[in-house]
Amino acid sequence: MAVTLNINGEDKTVDAGEGTPLLWVLRDHLNMTGSKFGCGVAQCGACTVHVDGTPTRACVTPHDLLEGRKITTIEGANGRVADALRAAWEAIDVPQCGYCQAGQMMAAVALLETTPNPSDQDIDDAMSGNLCRCATYMRIRAAIKDAATRI
Questions:
Q1: 64 and 126 share a domain?
Q2: DSSP helix/strand/coil, 47
Q3: Residues 6+ apart with CB under 8 A from 149
Q4: Is 127 helix (H, G, I), strand (E, B) or coil?
Q5: pLDDT value at residue 5
Q6: Residue 108, SS3?
Q7: Are 33 and 99 in the same domain?
Q8: Which residues fall within 8 angstroms of residue 108, CB to CB, at 6 or more apart?
Q9: The whole model's pTM is what?
Q10: Band of residue 93 on the pLDDT scale cut at 50, 70, 90
Q11: pLDDT for 1 beyond 90
């Protein structure tokens, strides 16, 4: 069954099995590999995308339930907030291995779009579902604070 998804502002028609997680549609059908597979049970955040502006775990979200919704991946994250975060991520040298960074960035974008001047607690709460095996949490927090000053 073909489903049309709006991804990063473009309609994409995909023919994947019913219930196929969005992550596999993105990676295997659309060759959009920015979102990563980490755990497969929505616990690590490496697969985070936005659905209608809300951080969503693509590894457990059936693609066929998203027709008519606006999906944004790391490849399509743009604008003042995303640009400020990218600049801060680079300036503070946040990534170590980098595997989780797309999910981290997507969670941070959602945070700064709703809370432009977040406290440490706001950051901790918003980012708590995104794990970093390299433990760059202090640099992530610093980058989010830095990005808030750039917006």
A1: no
A2: coil
A3: none
A4: helix
A5: 98
A6: helix
A7: no
A8: 85, 126, 127, 140, 143, 144, 147
A9: 0.96
A10: very high
A11: no
